[in-house]
Amino acid sequence: MTSEPAASAxxxxxxxxxxxxxxxxxxxxxxxxLIKLRGETLATAESLTGGLVGAALTDVPGVSAIYRGxxxxxxxxxxxxxxxxxxxxxxxxxxxxxxxxxxxxxxxxERLDATYGLATTGVAGPDPQAGVAAGTVxxxxxxxxxxxVRKLQLSGDRAAIRRGSVQAVLELAATLVxxxxx
Length: 182
Fold this sequence. Notes:
The chain is an alpha/beta fold. 41% of the residues lie in helices and 24% in strands. It has a single domain (2-181), classed as Alpha-Beta Complex (Maf protein), CATH 3.90.950.20.
């Protein structure tokens, strides 16, 4: 697993789904085209984003060629049941942890038979969860050769934190897929 430094951002101006944010649209189109070029596929496992990653992806024309589907695993036990996160890992570190994010991405990749798996887990707020501050988010992307995880410390309301998480996981995925091309 590769872990990147924590990112900090205020994300109040992103628009999801349906476009409007040119940066997000560019990332989405770049990601979809990179995966299409190789004839590969993508799947998603989402917790705090509750389907926003899948919604953003399915706004891109032609995405059906690469998007296998996704699971929304908001409840902790569903992370194990549906996305394949080991129960002992969840018991040891909880749902908001870099290892959990990595396991979500790897698990959805395997369970949905995709080349790449993306995952989001964190606390959208406004209150902390199990001692984890609102705005603490881990996003992960798993591919054939590696898993990358990024920690985010986002600010704003629930909607802003969720939008920032979507942007971050899609950017991470585009980076991983581009690296795989090299």
